[in-house]
Amino acid sequence: MWGISPLFLFTGNRLNLSFSIVIPRRLKIAHSSTVKKKFYSYLVYFLLCGCVIISIAHFTGVIPIRNIFLSSNNSSPDFLADSVRVRSLNKMAFKIRLADPKKTILIATKALKLAKKINYIPGVAEANRVAGVGFSYLENTPMATKHYIEALRFYKQLGDKRNVARIYNNVGNLYKYSNYDKALKHYNNGLKIAKNINDEELTAGMYFNTALIYSKRFQYEKSMDNFDRSYGIFKKLKDTTSIAIYFQNTGHVFHRMGEIDSAKTRLFKGISTAKDLGLYSTLGGCYLSLGYIYLQQDQFTLCEQTIGEGMKYASKVNSLTLDNDFTRLFYELELKRKNYRKALKYLALVYHNDSLLLNENQSSNIDFNSQHFLQQQKIQEKELIIAEQKYREARTGWIITLGILILLLTVGVVLAWYFIREKKRRREEVLIQNKITTLEQKALHAMMNPHFVFNVMNSIQHFVNQSDLKQANQVLSGFARLARKHLEICINSTISVQEELVYLELYLSMEKTRFPDKMNYIISFDKDIDTDEITIPSMLIQPFLENAIWHGIMPKEVGGNVSVHFDMIDTNLLVKIIDDGIGILNSEKLKKTRHVSRGMTLIRERISLLNRLNKHEISIDQRQTGESGTEILIKIPI
Predict the structure, then answer these.
(1) When comparing pLDDT for 64 and 625, which is higher?
(2) CA 199 – CA 191 distance, rounded (Å)
(3) How far is CA 253 from CA 47, 264, 377, in A?
(4) Which has the higher per-residue pLDDT, 46 or 387?
(5) CATH (one of 1.20.120.450, 3.30.565.10, 1.20.58.100, 3.40.50.150) for 448-637
(6) Alpha-carbon distance 556 to 579, whole Å?
(7) Does the predicted model carry a pTM greater than 0.85?
């Protein structure tokens, strides 16, 4: 085996506008109601969104259950000082991992003891992780695994996604020489988390380590693609340590691809950067790859010098594996020089070192497996209990959350349906009200149409010509009062019964004055009716009286009578209009064409619209009494 790919690990650390709008009182009330309903609908919407976001954040672990488990005295000055000390030791140990992994383990062990003493769980987790890194650099896989498992357990309890991803990366590094598929699996798990939490440093490291696996599989295009992705992030973060390792490994890949010049360029860049930073493992790896290039080019002197430089750095990191790789390179150099005696000497040394490594690993495995098995069994039992408890809590939480969401969604849908229906109803009300206003204006015009005015003027002229000035003045005075009253009631949608009585008296007295021998009238009302308080739609009854006079009484030769009576039954005002004219059926027979009174048509349209706005409807019952005469019954809800 030749070449080296060092482990890649993380450093971890008013323009104000004013408008004045005149709004009718009825529309102002509707506008206020609309604003209030919109406010409530928005409030429900934001509550619903907040519930969904909190539920998702809690159950996906974006919001950790607890970031720090602290002891009862965690607010004391001693605890605060010791926790700062633990963090400082962990940072120091991790920083020197490439230069002196043995010292990394010593410092991390010291941090671990102190963290356990003060029950500082984040410190315990990080100390285990850093110790695992140190053991991995010394190729002590069992001890590295032990510390990684401990760190992973604590970080999962803390809900620390970033460090969970870092452990996946570290475990992937343990498999990178023995099981490429497992290594890629752990790197991909870490990469997903790193991207999810938007951690660029973690993401770059995962890309880098994935690239190393692809290079070992001879998939160089995929390897360089992942290397370049990581390099872009390293430059952005100004991570010179990682850049040095990048140059070392890409130089190794270019060498294997046969691009010697590119390989040399990158390896020299790696050596230059690593020297400035004191990265001895990286320097050893660069010199090892460079030595193989010189050996391949038969530049034996340069190769020997390169091996000498590399071995100096290998001795500083106390790496038996790296030292053995240089010994193997010496063997291949002397073999190519045909110095077989020296070559045999180096080969024997390589076998000796391999035996030492094998014995060391076997011894470590025996000690580790016997002690670690029992420990792992206890840990698994505890984790099983914790997992079952978390499952029950999560299931209960999901059921409650789902119930709340369904309830809120139901409320939201019902409110939305209600607001839409109300909006539609208000729009219809406005349209109906506008149409009613239009019909009222038309009814006003019909009641005071030019023919009526013209006939009144003719009546006045007739009395003047007859020199009956008293009668002329009486007609003129009555017409003036009728016109004034007409203008008063036309601006209101409703009027009191008293106002209606006055208006009907003025109208009927005017017609009586014009046709004294042709008609008589009576207006009466029940004494229990509060004529000042009860209101009815304006301009509703007069058209029926006009119809009774002109189509019932006027066609008679001898004239007739018309009466209006107001009565109160329960909550309804009953208006009964009776005439002894020719009758509605006979009146229709006399008409040459099927004439429809314009005033009556407007009244019926208006009543239909009012009935759509109100819960209780206005009804009109019209019938002929016997062979002649007509009775009209108008029922108005109060």
Answers:
(1) 625
(2) 10
(3) 56, 11, 42
(4) 46
(5) 3.30.565.10
(6) 12
(7) no
